From TrEMBL:
Entries under PANTHER family matching the protein: TOXIN MJ0605-RELATED, UPF0332 PROTEIN TM_1000
Domain HEPN residues, every copy: 10-125
Organism per entry: Candidatus Desantisbacteria bacterium CG23_combo_of_CG06-09_8_20_14_all_40_23
Pfam families, alphabetized: HEPN (PF05168)
Protein's name according to its UniProt entry: Antitoxin
Amino acid sequence: MEGTEKDLAKYRIAKAKEDMETAKINLDNGKFTQSINRSYYAMFHITRALLSFDKFDSNKHSGIISYFNQHYAKTGKIEIKYSKMLREAEAIRNDSDYDDFFIATKEQAENQIKNAEEYMERMEKCIKEKELCVISNG
């Protein structure tokens, strides 16, 4: 891993924010499937930002989500509702990307953006706490 965990987290946070911005642009332009996709990726990348402090990464989405659930949600470091949000976001993203007959609605895209914004806000708070631990222990 190049740089510090904090550097990697910052990069992944920037990527997540860009995805969130793209999700909103897609929503505004009536591209609901693409909006759902990008809002999920915003959540995915901010989760990876958090996990960078654990020096954990996976080339599979299921690996990231599983680690997050096991080490954060199930241990009480993060409220369970955020684990559920991430799993539901992945499920609708999979449907919108791979189900030939899935037609995303504006309501689904709006709801996904709302959830992604709440999720990102919570993950950023947790990341800030992790940064403080790295600074004080490093």
